[in-house]
Here is the input.
Amino acid sequence: METLHFKFGAGERPLTGAAQMVGVVGSGNLEVLIEAAPLGGACEIDVHTAAVGFGAIWGAVMEDFHARWRLADARISINDNGATPAVVSLRLDQAVESLLGPATGGTP
Amino acid sequence: MDWQTLATQLFPGGHAIVERDNFLSGSAQVDGATVDVIGTSGHVPIGIEIALAQATAILETVQAHPGRPILILVDTQGQRLRHRDEMLGINSYMAHLGKCVDLARRQGHTVIGLVYDQALSGGFITSGLIASACYALPQATIRVMGLPAMARITKVPEERLTELAQDNPVFAPGPENYLRMGGLHGIWERDLAQELVRALADCPHEDRRMALGQERGGRLLAQPVAAAVRTGSDVRPA
Amino acid sequence: MTAEGRWTIQQDNRRARLERASNALGGALKGKLVEASHIVELLHAVLEPGDRVCLEGNNQKQADFLGKALTRVDTARVHDLHMLLSVLSLPEHLDVFEKGIASKLDFSFSGPQAGRLAKLAGAGRLNIGAIHTYLELFARYFIDLTPRVALIAAEMADREGNLYTGPNTEDTPAIAEATAFKSGIVIAQVNQIVDKLPRVDIPGDWVGYVVQSPTPYYIEPLFTRDPAQISEIQVLMAMMAIKGIYAEYQIERLNHGIGFDTAAIELLLPTYAAGLGLKGKIARHWALNPHPALIPAIEAGFVESVHSFGSELGMENYIRARPDVFFVGPDGSMRSNRAFSQAAGHYACDMFIGSTLQIDLQGNSSTATLGRIAGFGGAPNMGADARGRRHPSAAWLKAGQQAREGRNTIPRGQKLVVQMVETFREHMAPAFVERLDAWQLAEQTGMAIPPVMIYGDDVTHILTEEGIANLLLCRSDEEREQAIRGVAGYTPVGMARDKRMVENLRERGIIRRAEDLGIDKRMATRDLLAAKNMKGLVRASGGLYDPPKRFRNW
Amino acid sequence: MSSYLELTARQRIPAMFDAGSFEEFLPPSKRIASPHLAQLDAPVSYDDGVVVGRGLLGGHIVFGAAQEGAFMGGAVGEVHGAKLVGMLRRAIDEGAHAVLLLLESGGVRLHEANAGLIAVSEVMRAMLDVRAAGIPVVAVVGGANGCFGGMGIAARCANTVIMSEEGRLAMSGPEVIETANGVEEFDSRDRALVWRTTGGKHRYLLGDCQLLVADDTAAFRAAALEAIAALGAGAVGLTLEGLLAEQAMLARRLHDAEGVSEPMEIWRRLGVPDPARVPMLEADAFLTLAAQHRAGLPSDAAHTGEQ
Here is the structure.
């Protein structure tokens, strides 16, 4: 297992509402827990992954995710069982949409 | 231990237990009172017939001898692994046995389990583990499956499992670990007849195994989690 | 040697072999019918050391009884055979090398035996002549690899040796013709011997001997994909394929490689593609095995015709009931033919789309992995521009025009060859690499060239979940490389992209993302699949499709 | 029609309960995961593979749980089991109208085997406590991973079992039996045989499942409402009469299946005409056919669990 931590500042979209979880920690899949948290405008992401040694890829996926949504005061926690970046991005978007509704003008 | 030796030690006042196709049934004298005994011998796998036979014996006691204590003697290598058993719904036969034990308890019978040789996975779950209290002899084998098979299925190297099993009751076979986790109420080290008398007298009616597991340090999270769910509070670890 | 004998050496030798067999078998030979218990004696009689022997191993049906019999011959009498196999998939196909019965191999595809084949080749137990595509190997049967003896499989024979292959004709005509007309000997194993065949697939005078196999020939359902296993990412890619390629080029004639990616496309035709108004405009004529996943599209009226390389288990009754779509004989069962269908896929289709394991920066794609010699099968025949093609079609012309635009060349069409991959396979193995594993495999096993499935200069589009790279529009090697990097996602190859250049390619429409195609990614759910599981396929077929038991959950 | 099988546990809850009514106990934001998986290098889940809570079903307060089959096969570990037990005890405390268990489980989680084994027996006892308190327990089995091992037993401790044809209810998985006793004993790759042996239709014909529905969330919800309404009218705790009736049914099943090794032969002996057709029948047509032939019919006793 490997634990990764990402923090992005300068978010614009604060989260509201109760915590949501999407996805399942099945093979090649992940769960994403997303919740509002007072983080001084930051978005913090914790990743616990079964696939060791892919930190750089996670970093790139998360940067693109942040560029897409620019969340503020958001805490995201991920339990991953070897999901590909495509699945990770999909679940992240689903998690945000479960709180914010579909993206409006936030596409890359 | 074979069941005859066991019975001699358990019932100095005498017993009338008979064995037929590894199915044990009959009655015995304990401290001047009659106890009904059911069980299995010879590590027999629990198939649909023997599960049904045990259930039938329990309902006979419930009907013929209201309130009479029941002792379940456990020695099984687990559920029988045959297509026919699955086809006919072995889970229903097992559940039926468990429900008969539960009914007996609710109708005032003290039901105690004793693992005197082997207790493996599915064969144990609706016998000893569904009784009001379960005990074991120190040399008994209790487990879900062996570490080699567990390694194969979990894909964790066997060496690693063996290493973890040293001090983690959650993987390691053996009655000591089940005791620490609350799955067993006690291990009978000395005079079996006396232990049985005491156990029948002290039999709990509520399922307190999670609390026992927490007190004994072998299962630390179950009780706090169940309590948190039940009371709508947060988990307070031990 | 007599004057006539000088030109009839092969015929004379054939006659001698037949005579040996007739002497050896005695009463066990009745006309052309040989008793199964005497099969090894027959092989001893008709085989000579060093013979080229074609053993029919197809994608589907297998001459497994004859293959096993061959492993039982006495090496003192039969050795150093040169085996010809289009598909080498059963253990006995390699046992003959291990036992010293055969020493040389020419083949096309090895599937499940790929690992063992690599080991045997590495240990010098067999000498691989070459790894071919199907059509290429069949072609050589008629040029320089003509079999002396062919061991083939059929469903039924009559007493004259006429054969009925049923829906799985596959390679049989090519093998039998090459052997029979060059003084070779054809031996057929059949499941049944009958008085009257439903139809004749191979004329009896091409066939030397017939043996009724004690058990029916082995057959593998190779083209069945359970829709339950199609992921939402695969649905998204299928949407991109349909909107970005099928609709864009109006592709009417095509071949699909096998896999969940293409199964997703097949299952999206009656839903997503129909919604785009594409019915009757795309995917009308197919060179394709009877994929069960195509049933909903057929039922929806998308598909006008399908010619098949082989059949697929469980599809027999469905095919029989849809003779307007499939090629069926007067008896009602399908007639497949791998050689013709390969030729059709090569010359008469406007597009091939299929999956692969690795793609390099030139767009070369390979399914080779270390320690396995898997071969090619038929994909390279479909996945190559047909340089000999002369007839036009809208798709072919448009592809050619895109490839040649702005260059001083004469107008000409081009086939669309699409490679469809997720950027990562399972266990985070990247599909895009700087260097194909094929290079290392070639070094390890002494191949003259790395085993490339589809050459980069034939690939016109690469489709991933990140987008479609249209390589036809690239005007330099550098653009081509960046176009590939630009759809390679978060693989090291993808992350090493020149972001500015990739953006420029996107502006020029060389790279197109889902959103550039007007595809809402949130629409990409399994709800778009016309059938979500095997039972859905059965329902779509009106109960005619009867899936093999391993694919059921009922 | 919207597939129940394809949904995750978390998606099944709103599909079964009244819209927006479900309140989860110990939700993922509490991050209570298995303490045992990390040392085996296995990923955890913040719900440990089960959602438990309380919601409304047809306007009544119903407690519920949904096991996630994709996380460790839905297997029961220490936390997973304790969440189920806590929910069941709370259902008694709060006098629930019913308990609805959406089961999908391989049984005991081997990564924490001893804790899982004990936990499954605790779940069974807690279910029977709920019933003894006069609260009906309904189990639903319709996930891709089926309901096996100890949870296969637990399912039959409910008053009513609802299944789809795709659901499987058994004890040992076919792979386990094949490994132990060979492919001749049970060919696990013969999925048609696996479903004939353990699938919803067979269980319905045998009388181990009381309601069979198509794989459709609306059908499952309707069946749950129907089952709870039917149970609400009578006693739901164990009774001697009920268990004697069940014993008679199980004894008769053993007797009637003497020498039989093929499930289709059992159907034939039950009087089902053309048993080979059964697997292909849609749920409605099957129910019409089965109505006259299934064992453990309402004529023997009420159509609840062990009766």
